[in-house]
Amino acid sequence: MKTRPPPLRRLVWLALPALLAMASACHSLPDAAAPPATTAELWQQLQAESQRSGCQHDQQCHSLGVGSKACGGPERYLPWSDDQRHDQRLQQLAAAYATARSADDQRQQLMSNCALVPDPGAQCRAGRCVLRPPATGPASSTPAGR
């Protein structure tokens, strides 16, 4: 004949997963309760993160569209290096910044000119990734991002 565990022990075993989940959630409350970053703060974080690492050659440099235009697409681009593989943090900041910019635009009832902002691509110069200069005229046939 099987014996059943005492009711209190059984209750503890049944409640343990829920207690662990609650403890985990409580641990993250200070971050969740923090006020959301302002658009200006997010922009500063984005710039700092994009310049966090250097480069040795152009292949390490990339451009990331940031911001949000009312008609879609980014409002500008930032250069960044994959030297330290921090692109996930950069993508998260860019998404938060785009959301904040969009909310600011709606709150202030701002409109976009809906002009397409072409991706200039990025290159390595003096150990830092920088945006390529804008193409000028028909003589410039190099595709952006190369």
TrEMBL record:
The keyword Signal applies. Keywords: Signal. Residues 1-33 form the signal peptide. It comes from the Bacteria. This is Lipoprotein.
